[in-house]
């Protein structure tokens, strides 16, 4: 049986997912839907999708799987547009970077959270966006977190898991709140810190001067500040509580570092730096 | 004439400098000096230095150029040890990451700041240390900042500039305070933020969990947290005032971001992220 897959938002993530499906040799039919005919035509030209439509109702008609790969801020409106047309048999999933907010958007947009809706999030990405940045191995060897709810249909979870495994990803299940907290710490906070640092330096009088002396460490550290500002605004709004919690913790740590520097407390500084280096070397290498 | 060069501290920076000199085909004699015979013997075995001594007095005897490549915290004691033996003709220079503090250490250690002392700092490095991490192209295409004082002998500055240019580096002169402020912003602050972030996460209960979900962005962002804790403690102590100034500015910016997230102020977040992305893309690519 030929699966019919509808992708809403054929950008970096949606496009890479489509390419990975094709690469895995699946003979699905992949239909793209978003706002801009230009973007969709490009996706078709690049061989990412088989066909496209600007009409959400048409996109989900007879779809077996519908994947939402639009920005977090667009999840609810897309759900509203497909609400009357989505078949109860269809599996619905998404790739949003924060989960509680997508679940709420689905509830608002569809009027309920369907048992065949499986919230998902691939821990993979680049600082680029749009379909031209998509590539078929983006998820290979990366983790994908699914956060099914209590009433989620286990067969739908298995189907979504199976599709992700075709991309080479390693799938794990997690509670919604845990996902949002873990990602706030490992992804959202670092992005906010990097954006903040570059903006702080860009606001200084010696701006040009300053960036001229940025070495490799600075470039690596701030690479994520080249990420899509709209996506990151959406994430900050969508995962507000978890982000504020980890930011408060971090600001406390930073204050402790500041105090140690003020007091010339070399032992305390050394202790913090050694703990950090040990953790970084143990977990990231 | 065969120049005699003495390197105090044949680690990542001192060792790479020696290798670059050799690579440039100079027929200097390079003498290494530090505390550990093991380290020095390794440096000789790796072909980084011609010979070594544990005796600072012997190391500087008849030296034409003396380069201090020891940790910031060791600069003063090394100067004390060579004080009675350094010829007034010898050129003295250093590679320390903060300049006002090295100048003060030289003043304390030698009892004066000799006119042929040329403070210097290569904007190059890796998160590794020790002579085994040294390589001859470390400075190639990178900037080196010299911060001569008013009474510094211009011919000494030119000699040091010429040696650095042999490594492929681009040499610039800068005022001491300007150097320390610029580096606090582009190098010292990012390192402190990265150490702080990893330590903050390592302190959380779900530690193992959390690092498992760290993606590429996190790894790049925190790579500098693998740097030598002792060196970074020294830098924090040595460049305290400039670091505290930029940390205060950054903490204000972070508070502004926190408030914007608290208030769900998407426009403000988007504005900050867009400015940061524009600056990052303009200056770092
Ligand atoms: N980038 C990452 O690192 C990353 C990682 C994991 C998860 N995610 C998540 O993946 C999702 C997509 O991110 P991305 O990086 O792939 O973004 P992207 O490359 O900008 O793609 C977003 C796509 O959504 C479409 N779109 C935007 N607004 C829409 C709307 N109102 N209705 C219908 N389509 C709309 C856009 O096409 P049109 O302009 O034609 O509408 C575009 O194709 C987000 O939810 C994000 O949180 C991103
Ligand atoms: N790494 C960077 O990214 C970077 C970049 C620019 C500038 N710098 C500056 O370069 C200098 C050296 O840094 P590095 O990264 O090359 O460090 P490193 O690889 O650890 O080398 C330091 C060397 O100094 C010697 N040393 C340490 N304490 C000493 C003492 N009390 N007396 C004599 N020798 C001593 C050590 O050898 P023994 O153990 O045998 O004594 C070692 O060979 C520092 O001032 C740093 O601020 C570093």
TrEMBL record, chains A, B:
Q: In which pathway does it act?
A: Amino-acid biosynthesis; L-tyrosine biosynthesis; (4-hydroxyphenyl)pyruvate from prephenate (NAD(+) route): step 1/1
Enumerate the PROSITE patterns for this protein.
PDH_ADH
Name the keywords, alphabetized. Amino-acid biosynthesis, Aromatic amino acid biosynthesis, NAD, Oxidoreductase, Tyrosine biosynthesis
- Pinpoint the Prephenate/arogenate dehydrogenase domain residues: 3-285
- What does the record give as EC number? 1.3.1.12
Q: Which reaction does it catalyse?
A: prephenate + NAD(+) = 3-(4-hydroxyphenyl)pyruvate + CO2 + NADH
Q: Which family does it belong to?
A: Belongs to the prephenate/arogenate dehydrogenase family.
Q: What is the name attached to this protein's record?
A: prephenate dehydrogenase
Q: Which organism is it from?
A: Ectothiorhodosinus mongolicus
């Amino acid at each position: 049986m030929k699966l019919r897959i509808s992708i809403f938002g054929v950008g970096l993530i949606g496009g890479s997912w489509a390419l990975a499906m094709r690469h895995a040799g699946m003979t699905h039919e992949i239909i793209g839907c978003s706002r801009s005919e230009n973007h969709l035509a490009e996706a078709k030209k690049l061989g990412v999708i088989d066909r496209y439509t600007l009409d959400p109702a048409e996109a989900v008609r007879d779809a077996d799987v519908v994947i939402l790969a639009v920005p977090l801020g667009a999840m609810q409106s897309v759900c509203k547009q497909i609400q009357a047309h989505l078949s109860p048999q269809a599996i619905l999933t998404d790739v949003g970077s924060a989960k509680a907010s997508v679940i709420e958007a689905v509830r608002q947009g569809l009027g309920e959270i369907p048992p065949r809706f499986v919230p998902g999030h691939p821990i993979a990405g680049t600082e680029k966006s749009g379909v031209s940045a998509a590539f078929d191995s983006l998820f290979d060897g990366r983790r994908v977190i699914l956060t099914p709810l209590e009433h989620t249909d286990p067969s739908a979870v298995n189907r979504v898991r199976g599709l992700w495994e075709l991309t080479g990803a390693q799938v794990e299940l997690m509670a919604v709140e845990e996902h949002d907290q873990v990602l706030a710490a490992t992804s959202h906070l670092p992005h906010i810190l990097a954006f903040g640092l570059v903006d702080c330096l860009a606001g200084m009088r010696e701006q040009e001067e300053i960036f001229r002396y940025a070495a490799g460490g600075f470039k690596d550290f701030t690479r994520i500040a080249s990420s899509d500002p709209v996506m990151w605004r959406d994430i900050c709004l969508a995962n507000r509580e978890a982000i504020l919690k980890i930011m408060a913790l971090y600001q406390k740590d930073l204050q402790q570092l500041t105090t140690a520097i003020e007091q010339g407390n070399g032992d305390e500084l050394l202790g913090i730096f050694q703990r950090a280096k040990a953790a970084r070397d143990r977990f990231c290498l």
